[in-house]
What we know:
Distance between the termini: 77 Å
Helix content: 40-55%
Number of domains: 3
Radius of gyration: 32 Å
Strand order of the largest sheet: 4-3-5-12-6
Largest sheet: 5 strands, mixed
CATH superfamily of the largest domain: Periplasmic binding protein-like II
CATH architecture of the largest domain: 3-Layer(aba) Sandwich
Amino acid sequence: MHSHHRIDWEDLRFVLAVAEANSLAAAARALGVNHTTVLRRVGSFEQKLGVRLFDRLPSGYMLTAGGEELLAVARQMAETVTELERRLTGQDLRLEGSLRITTTDTLMASILPSILADFRQRHPGVLLEVSTSNALANLSHRDADVAIRPAVDSPDALVGRRIAKVAFAVYAAPSYLDVRELTADTLDIAREHWIGLGDALASTSVARWMRATLVAPAVLRCDSLVTAREAAKAGIGLAALPCYLGDTTPGLIRIGAPVADMTRELWLLTHEDLRRTARVSAFTEFVGQALAKHRPLLEGNKPST
Length: 305
C-alpha cells in the first residue's frame, strides 16, 4: 500500500458494502445506487491504492488477502465512526455516576425539585446528591460539583452563569394582620413583630437589611429562611423572604414591593476543571435553561396569589 494515497472514506463505504454482500447488485441495493456506480467506485479505489481487493469470480466478488486486511481495519473504522456519530447526536450519551449539588433550602422548598425531576427523567443514570447547608460548599475541594445559590458575585476559580436577580420582600400571614386590625398598607414594618435570623445567616443581605431597618428585637429567631416562612405562616410575625419562596407559599401575603437592599443574584456555579465532564455540563445547561424560565418569579414580578 502506498502511504501517500489518502483513503477516501466514501469509497471505503462502497468496498465494505460489496464485501458484505459478495455481489455488486446486492451492494448497490444496500447503498441505494445503481451497480455501475459501485463498479466505478470500487475500481477507482483499487487503482488509487494499487491493490486488488476483490477477485471477480462467477460466484461473485471475493476478497483477496489484501482486501481482507483492509476490510478488518475498515470495519473497525466504520464502527468507530458510527459510535462517534451516535454519541454526538446524544442518543447514546448515557450519563452516569453521581452529581453533587449544593443549593439553598429555599430553592429546594420552591422551584428546584420539579427541575431536578425533569432532569432525572432525561438522565436516569445520574444520581443527584443534594446538600442544602447554608455554608457555601467548597467547590474547589470538590465538596460539590455544582452550586445553585444566591450570591453577590461569582467566587474565583469557579465558572458560572448569572441566572437572574433574586428579589426579597416582606411577608405576613393574613391572621397576623387580622389580629392587629392592620392591612398591608397601614402597618409600620419597622415596628412590627419579626421573625429574626440566627448567626448562621448573619452575613446575608436579609439579615443586614433587618439589622439596619428594624426597631424592636425579634420575637423568634431561626437559622433557616424555610423555618422563617413556617413561623410567618403561623402568624408569629413578619418575615423577609426571597419572592420565589414567599410568592409561592399559600397562606402568606406580600407586604409592599421587593426591597432593593436585599436583592441578590442567583448563580449556577461549577469548578473550572469540572465543567467539561459530560454530566456536569449536561446538568448546568439543563438547569440553567429551566431556571431562566422562572425569571419573573425570581425577580419578584410575579404578583402574589
